[in-house]
Amino acid sequence: MAHWLLKSEPSSWSWDQQAKAGAKGTFWNGVRNHSAKLNLMAMKKGDKGFFYHSNEDKAVVGIVEIIKTYYPDHTDESGKFGMVDLKAVKALKKPVTLAEIKAEPRLKDMVLVNNSRLSVQPVSDEEWRVVLEMAGEKG
DNA sequence: GCCAACGTTGGC
DNA sequence: GCCAACGTTGGC
């Protein structure tokens, strides 16, 4: 199973809002970047992702699951971009901050570190495991 | 098709 | 609020 990292500014869409959407989840739209789009298109139902708060928190705060694969974003007038649906799985016991991620040698190749502006990123199995460990989420 | 200029993102 | 980095746009 592939893993992902999805970034959002808490002021526009926060983890709290995602969590409130519950099991039925919500769509994840607003992607306007082709690299991010390719990642969205590669997602499969059941894939898990980290929910990252940019700007204010700068931390991974929760885990989400893809519940619907890529489909056109009808709010995008250009018709070029689409979105997926996802639901909140759980909040991390302890958010993992960007500073902590940067300080962890095993995470030095994370896209978050090297290409911080990309809003939808792949996460390797190793990176997924390490971040969970740092969040106090064992297993 | 190249590349400079511009806009946006996001860390600090 | 500033600025660096990146992506996109548009002129040639």
UniProtKB/TrEMBL annotation:
EVE domain mapped to chain residues: 2-134
Alphabetical list of Gene3D superfamilies matching this protein: ph1033 like domains (3.10.590.10)
InterPro entries: 5hmC_binding (IPR052181), EVE_domain (IPR002740), PUA-like_sf (IPR015947), THYN1-like_EVE (IPR047197)
PANTHER family: THYMOCYTE NUCLEAR PROTEIN 1 (PTHR14087)
UniProt-recorded name of the protein: EVE domain-containing protein
Top-level taxonomy: Bacteria, Pseudomonadati, Pseudomonadota, Alphaproteobacteria, Hyphomicrobiales
